[in-house]
Amino acid sequence: MRSRPSVGTAAGTLTRWVPRLIIAIALVHFVWAFVQPNAWAAIAGDGFVRAVADTESGDYSEREASVWFLAAGVALLALGTLSRHLVRTTGRLPAQLGWYLVGIGVSLCVLYFPVTGGWPLLAIGVLALLAAREPVEAGEHAEA
User: Fold this and answer.
1) Where are the beta strands (DSSP E) in 9-77?
2) In the chain, at which residue ranges do the beta strands (DSSP E only) sit?
3) 59 secondary structure, DSSP code
4) Helix or strand or coil: residue 7?
5) Residue 110: count of CB within 10 angstroms of its CB
6) Measured distance CA(126)–CA(131) in Å, rounded
7) pLDDT tens digits for 40-91?
8) The pTM is what?
9) Residue 23 and residue 29: Cα distance in Å, rounded?
């Protein structure tokens, strides 16, 4: 069994919570992809392949939203689990994680202002930037 490298640090509160919040937002995207007015039955009925390619289709918006919410959930889950791994192995979060989330959040907030799911991403991005600046305490392993 391979052991975790000893980083000799303890992650701060924000550092531990940011990956959890990203994963929670990913789960919200997965749920919303199937709860919102969606077109999964039509997509499946068309055999999935090129099922969202016809922009003239009457339900194109529902099909597109269904796929994008699912894809965003996968991308956010990847960011969340990778950041959790970084916290566990190094005790830190990289600042670029925060910048990525801020960039996505600002883009969504500007394009869909004021009603958008970009606000939570923007908030988590700011928290990630603050977490990246947290001092690292010596003597303990990181937990996430």
Assistant:
1) 9-10
2) 9-10, 137-138
3) T
4) coil
5) 10
6) 9
7) 999 999 899 988 888 888 888 888 989 999 999 999 999 999 999 999 999 9
8) 0.81
9) 10
